Amino acid sequence: MNQPHVVAAPYTYVSKSVGNVMSWVMIALAPATLYGFWLYGWPAIFLWTITILSTLAGEAFCLRLMDKPAKPVLKDCSAALTGWLLAVSLPPWAPWWVGVIGGLFGAIFGKQVFGGLGQNPFNPAMVARVVLLISFPVQMTSWVSPLPITAADAPSLHQGLMITLTGIPKSFDAIASASLLGFAKTEMSRGVDLLHAFSEATAPVLSFEGFRQGSLGETASLLVAGGGLLLLWLRIISWHIPVSVLAGVVIPALIANGADPEHYLPATTHLLSGGIILGAFFIATDYVTSPNTHFGQILFGLGVGILTWIIRTWGGYPEGVAFAVMLMNIMTPIIDRVCKPRIYGRTRAGKPIVADKVN
Amino acid sequence: MIAAVFSLTALGVVLGLVLGYADRIFKVESNPVVDEVLAMMPGSNCGQCGFPGCAGAANALVDGKAAASVCPPGGKELAVALAAKLGISLDMSQVKDDGPQVAHVSEEICIGCCRCIKACPTDAIIGAAKQIHAVIREACTGCTSCVDRCPTEAMTMKPVPVTVQHWVWPKPAVAA
Amino acid sequence: MGFMDKIFKQPRWGVHPDDHKRPAADTPLRTLPLPARVYIPLVQHVGAAARPIVLVGDKVKKGQMIAEPGGNISAPIHASTSGTVIAIGEITAPHPSGLTLPAITIESDGKDEWIETKGVDDPFSLKPEEITKITAAAGVVGLGGATFPSAVKFSLGKRLEVSTLIVNGGECEPYLSSDDAIMRGHADQVIDGVRLIMHAIGARQALVGIEDNKPEAIAAMRKAAEGFDNIHIRPVPAWYPMGSDKQLIQVLTGKEVPADARAAELGVLVHNVSTCAAVHKAVRLGQPLVERIVTVNGGAVAKPGNIFLPIGTLVEELLAFCGAKETPARLILGGPMMGTPLPHAKTPVVKGASGILAFSAAEAEVPDAGPCIRCGSCSKACPMGLLPLEMAAHIRADDLEGSEAYGLQDCIACGCCSYICPSHIPLVQYFNHAKGELYSKERAKLRTDATKRLAEARTTRLEREAIEKAEAAARRKAERDAAKKKAAEEAAAAAKESTTEGAAS
To answer: What is the pTM of this model?
Structure first.
């Protein structure tokens, strides 16, 4: 008897929804993003807006191609979140087309091409970032020093719009510089060891307040960490991935820096530069591309951290979070196959346990 | 540069040889899966497939001379299972499946001629001369041999009734 | 008992849905006015259907056996009120399929007269097997909802030398409070039943697990259990599915039931508190199981509460008694997490019906299912440690064997995963569907094997008949030839005699 309308138990449901979860993640990102807007001014605001709109447009375009209604899917806020994460990992004064290409690529080839939410093997924001990094290395590594929006010589709204649309004009050239990690790598390749490099006056400064070059998501490390703690408190993410990512970076850094401080950056530098805090709390914890079980998540996190450290230290790129996350995304299905939870009444191998009689 | 070209070529040749050798060594002899396929068949040798009995159909399937939908009494389930086992494609439109069916005697019409009893491959019909016949449902494979033999058209095929104990929850509909 | 009670930490598995038990749980127990007709299904238990032993037109008294057990794992059915049997036929089953079940319909004569019941004065002097026999004859089955014939469970427990009886006063499902009512109002019946069952199975001690959202029940049970040193009242955290027997055993004893094995092999046996009360009535009062307490609750009910009623009452009569605020948008037999949806209200209340829920339109709303975001909430909630997201993904792709590899047959269908899913995917329905399909396939395979054997037997029989026929034909031919030969010889001998006679004269 075919009764497609017959619905099985349970008939009571939890009230949270996917859109709910994604919205909270965006709220957790908001303080760091707003601080970044203040630090970098109008161009950052425009770039952020354009990136998110492009991601949403890419998703809507794909849904239209598949003849599906766009509104319910966009309402689950996952595309907006992807766009936001991508925007905070870009250089704040990058040109508008970097944001557009990144947003479209992330939505279309990072997510929709695989079947939409839940089907993508790689983190879509990282897919977009890696593609941009490899295709447009110059624009993706042109960092600027912070120029607070309230400062006298900061670009006005109109100037900011022009910077995003037409590029950084000559008058602002002086503030362009490399990020701390980029500086460290270039100095090392020139043969200058780290202790000497950072003692120079022109070296980039490590700042807890984020007053240094970087993307929106890396400068305000403390605010990002605060957002991450909010997510932990709300039980949207669990501690396993963030702690193991940070441990994966800190432990090799401590060992290497302890052994040879001239050639290896200290652990605090690693933690406060680049997008490692953002990566640990917001990017590696992406539900779809990380393992299901806690033990698997620890393995995954450790892998991301260690790979990040390796790429930063010996790899060709100064920043390794995006590559590390994508490499570990490949490992997620294998980790899931190996790390399954123990079933009640069975051993880890799956055989029934021997009855331990109650007497 | 010469060294690079030479080394890559050599690598290609060596790996190609290794693959060819492995193909020879690890070649799988075509197993007699005929027995396994035969085990999946209903076993009543009704002949609806057009082959000499279930063994004939099994041989034809393994040789690739029959489609997976060859067995009408097996229905959709057998067709899917055969296609999965033999790795052949299945044209679902060819599968005639109205669900499992069993024979049913209309007792008002039956004249007790025993022709159907002689035809049934699993002895699923009980009765005797001038006695009304009946079908043992659990033994009927739905091969329809009896339907053609009945001179009064008392024999019809009816779907197996579903009971509360054997009802299956439908799969949840997926939003398109 | 105080210092021996252990407080358990909230378990890692499970969920905590909104309770919805009060105010229904606090209203006094009401008795349903005698219904005009009762429709008693012949299958209200796990196992073979009971066989009717009455005919249409027979007059029966309350408690009279009207159907005998249909096999070893079965239970008898008794009339739940006095009157006349007016039909033995099919009624709509309390089942989502809307299919029918055989049932005996009794028209009440209004007198509600019991048969002559004879209780046992000193049941502890009886042999354990006799208590089991009385329980079997009374038709007692698991009243928590599983409806396994209790007597069969007692025999199993005795055979496997079970040492601990676990009494399930959990009632973890939201909305339900029938066990709560029986513990609050009749704790002495429950404790007496516990002692009787302990005697029947040879258990050394009893652990009574009661969720801590029932403080009145805990207090009442503690008072009733005073003086019995081997009965321990153990409050457990109110956490779904604490009332599931596997989980209750784990929380109370710290041990797990091995997969594919019964709890008895672990040395424990689990029985619901209402079942214990039913055993008390069967042994002490000689009354078979013909009535029970049912919780009527839900947004569409005007006066929710616990109702004491005869088995076989139609759901619509029960709802009429409690009053309806609006037409129920959904009817459920049992609780909202694992209950059975009813096709309509003209279905009978059966032995395993601990509650009837009538949901308002708001409560009955089913949210649209979204895609799986692989958040893993379902896996964290699963009390059996399974991966519902993986199993559902395989079933969606019609890979049923793949989902079995992830432990589908270990699933207890508690509903925690579907409840917690942020995309509201109907996970339990996927699993029920898959389990049903796999079971059908297995049955089909057994059938194919059986018909193959029949076909082979027929071929052998035909060959044998052909050989016998040939032998018989050959034998007859040989006989005919021998007879012909004999006749020829006799004729020759007679001819010879006549010629010699002729020559002599």
So the answer is: 0.86
